[in-house]
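ok, trying the design again with the full structure, not the truncated one.
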């Protein structure tokens, strides 16, 4: 029996921030030096993000834009380096669970499943830590059994949900009766960088908040999950990092990442597909995590893809930003709204530099 992925549902916070407001926020929060930077508007114009959603509510956004302090948020200007990590984690504890719950409820509703029918729960997040975690909230609020088997995939970065899918697939393969609920939630906005380091300012322009949930099972029809793959690019540890500091989690992304993707991606993908009995030309659909415009362009160049192959990636980046781990499944959900045949490859990139992939075969559905 094959393992299927089905009933992908997504959730985003209520507050939508358009790009022109994001630029104003950057001028205000990143220090006096930022007000004189002539390249900052270009960053926001060319980052590919037209709008994004964040758990920091409209009251906080309005305070930053208007110079008021009605919300009394720790994210307002005035504290060097911005909020402490403890302050950021307090908001994560408050907001991550409800957003994950929203996506998970939609999945169970779409599948017409009761919470008691879920046998395994896999949760994914790299933007916060709490214990008890969001898994306990999901068990309580969804009516899952207290004996549901839980696994948490933590701190894996933008490809974390692909790691979660690998775990869910292994569980479902081992147990034909298993129904795995996979939930990924990220609150990237909580790690907004207050400063003028260019690579981190660019990260500010890209990242956003969101959640996704889905089912993985042999019992429920859906998109057959054929395989997963992983590749650590040698000697790349300094190119991308996700480090816990005193003022949030710090993302490091060097200019070498697109070059490394161009150099190493095709050879690895071709070898991986060949080991499964396919060739690059056999892949009909690509769901590529939009880490940023240069990453999408590097993937397209490396794999010699047509513009149409990554249209959905560009659209999700424009409408939602880079939500880290859930993002690739926002893309897949959009793709599945139209009939699909053949092979689909999901691609993500994370600290290491590591390439993660999953292969779906819609022809076998």
């Amino acid at each position: 029996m094959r393992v299927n992925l089905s009933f992908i549902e997504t959730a985003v916070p209520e507050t939508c921030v358009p790009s022109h407001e994001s630029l104003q926020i950057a001028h205000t929060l990143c220090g006096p030096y930022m007000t004189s930077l002539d390249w900052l508007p270009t960053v926001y114009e060319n980052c590919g993000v037209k709008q994004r959603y964040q758990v920091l509510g409209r009251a906080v956004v309005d305070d930053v834009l208007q110079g008021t302090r009605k919300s009394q948020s720790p994210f307002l200007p005035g504290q060097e380096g911005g909020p402490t990590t403890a302050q950021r984690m307090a908001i994560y504890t408050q907001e991550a669970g409800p957003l994950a719950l929203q996506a998970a409820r939609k999945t169970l509703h779409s599948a017409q499943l009761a919470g008691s029918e879920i046998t395994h729960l896999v949760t994914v997040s790299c933007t916060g830590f709490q214990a008890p975690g969001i898994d306990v909230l999901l068990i309580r609020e969804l009516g899952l059994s207290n004996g549901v088997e839980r696994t948490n995939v933590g701190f894996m970065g933008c490809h974390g949900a692909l790691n979660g899918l690998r775990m869910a697939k292994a569980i479902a393969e081992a147990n034909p009766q298993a129904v795995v609920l996979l939930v990924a939630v990220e609150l990237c906005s909580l790690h907004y960088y207050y400063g003028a380091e260019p690579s981190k300012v660019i990260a500010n322009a890209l990242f956003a908040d969101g959640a996704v949930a889905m089912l993985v099972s042999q019992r429920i029809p859906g998109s057959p999950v054929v395989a997963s793959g992983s590749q650590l690019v040698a000697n790349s540890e300094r190119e991308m990092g996700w480090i816990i500091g005193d003022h949030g989690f710090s993302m490091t992304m060097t200019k070498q990442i697109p070059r490394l993707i161009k150099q190493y991606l095709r050879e690895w993908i071709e070898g991986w597909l060949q080991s499964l009995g396919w060739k690059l030309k056999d892949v009909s659909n690509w769901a590529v995590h939009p880490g940023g415009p240069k990453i999408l362009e590097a993937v397209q160049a490396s794999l010699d893809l047509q513009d149409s192959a990554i249209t959905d990636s560009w659209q999700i980046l424009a409408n939602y930003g880079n939500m880290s781990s859930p993002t690739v499944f926002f893309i897949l959900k959009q793709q599945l709204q139209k009939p699909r045949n053949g092979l689909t490859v999901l691609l993500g990139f994370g600290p290491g530099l590591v390439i993660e992939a999953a292969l779906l075969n819609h022809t076998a559905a």
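Keeping the full-length input from now on. The chain has a mean pLDDT of 95.
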